[in-house]
Each structure stands twice: as structure tokens, then as C-alpha cells.
Design a protein that fits this description.
Layout: E1 7-11, H1 15-18, E2 23-27, E3 35-44, E4 52-60, E5 70-79, E6 87-95, E7 100-103, E8 106-109, E9 116-123, E10 128-134, E11 137-140, E12 148-153, E13 163-168, E14 171-175, E15 178-183, E16 188-191, E17 194-198, E18 206-208
Parallel strand pairs: 1-3, 2-4, 3-5, 4-6, 5-7, 5-8, 6-9, 7-10, 8-11, 9-12, 10-13, 11-14, 12-15, 13-16, 14-17, 15-18
């Protein structure tokens, strides 16, 4: 998959009924070659009401490996949704042992974007995921205090989550939101991230659960 030439992908997609966004990559097969989404502006105009909205959805349940299967880079997304949405997401990666490399993107939550996650990773396995999130610029303008710059959440059941995450060299302007949020995952290596304007006096800007 290759999108280039500084193009614009704009859509009005209900992520609740479609399970996707403006761009959706979905399969249960194993990656045989590396794929890439790059140099794009993506804008989902859908107002989900009490639902959720996504710009890019990676839904890959096939087994992965140590090699990068999906690379998402140099993508610009501003999340604009109603204040009642359940979750507003720029890039969502639901993966089962599939390595993703998300880097050099410019992702922004608008002031009205409720519960906004610029990058959300949801591994559906307890196996090694070996994914990297780095050199992204993330601006959290949401005023509800529920935005999370990079959110990694493992399986909801059991005590063991997936392993193998590298989060580094990201610039996150947090304001009253959470810059980083990790739940039910293991072996997350975090270094050289710059978090600015941290005003969250309730849950702090770095949340581990």
C-alpha cells in the first residue's frame, strides 16, 4: 500500500458501522511484504455523535514477526469531532503480533475533539508485538482533559499483555490531557520524548495502569 505525492484523503465515514476510517487496512493473513502509508493529509468529516471516529484504521489479526509489516509516516491529521464522541482517533492499530512503525507524523486534536487519541495501539495478543512510535509531533488541544497522545492498551482480560514497544523522540504538547497512556502491556521502552505544557493535575501527563 503506497500513498504519496502529498495527497489529500477526505471522507465522511461512520467508524462505528464500518469499523474503519478514511483508510482501512484489514486482513487475517500474514504480511509477506512491508506496506506503507505516507505523505498524506487525512480528514474524516464524520460527526459520530456518541460513537467513535477514526482517520486511519489498521485491523490486522494475522501473525507477525520481527520485521516491520506496516509503516505510517509523514501523515498529517487533525481530529475534529463533536464533544460527545466516545473516542476520536487519528491512527488506530489493532494488531495481533504485527509490527507497526508509526513515525514523523503531525497529529492534532482540535479543542472540540472529545476523548481524542492521535495514536492508539490495541494489540489483541499476549505475544511480542515489536512496534515503534517515534518522531511524531502530537498536539492535544482538547479541552475535556481526556485526550491521550499515544495510548497502548492490551487485552482487557488476564494479567499478561503483549511485549515489545518502543516510544521515543516524540514531541507531545499535552495541555490538560495525558501525553502517554499504557494499559495491560509489558516491556515498553520510553526515551527522549519531549512533553510540553503539562497541565493535567488529576491523572498527570504519564499514565500507567
Amino acid at each position: 500500500i503506497f500513498y504519496s505525492a502529498n495527497g489529500l484523503v477526505e471522507c465522511n465515514v461512520d467508524s462505528v458501522t464500518s469499523g474503519g476510517g478514511c483508510i482501512k487496512v484489514s486482513s487475517a493473513n500474514v504480511f509477506t511484504v512491508a506496506s506503507r502509508i505516507n505523505h498524506l493529509r487525512v480528514n474524516n468529516l464524520n460527526d459520530p455523535g456518541a460513537g467513535s471516529v477514526r482517520a486511519i484504521q489498521l485491523d490486522w489479526t494475522g501473525a507477525g514477526g520481527t520485521s516491520t509489516a506496516m509503516e505510517i509516516d509523514h501523515v498529517t491529521i487533525t481530529v475534529n469531532t463533536a464533544a460527545t464522541s466516545t473516542r476520536a482517533i487519528a491512527i488506530n492499530a489493532t494488531q495481533s503480533g504485527t509490527k507497526v512503525n508509526i513515525h514523523h507524523n503531525d497529529l492534532t486534536c482540535s479543542a472540540s475533539a472529545a476523548a481524542c487519541n492521535p495514536i492508539q495501539g490495541i494489540p489483541t495478543t499476549t505475544a511480542a508485538v515489536n512496534s515503534a512510535y517515534h518522531h511524531n509531533r502530537i498536539t492535544l488541544n482538547s479541552t475535556d482533559g481526556l485526550a491521550r497522545g499515544i495510548a497502548l492498551s492490551g487485552p482487557d482480560t488476564g494479567t499478561d499483555g503483549p511485549t515489545g514497544f518502543d516510544v521515543y523522540s516524540n514531541l507531545i504538547i499535552a495541555a490538560t490531557n495525558k501525553a502517554l497512556r499504557f494499559r495491560q502491556v509489558k516491556t515498553v521502552r520510553i526515551w527522549d520524548n519531549l512533553i510540553l505544557d503539562c497541565q493535567n493535575t488529576n491523572a498527570c501527563c504519564f499514565h500507567v495502569a
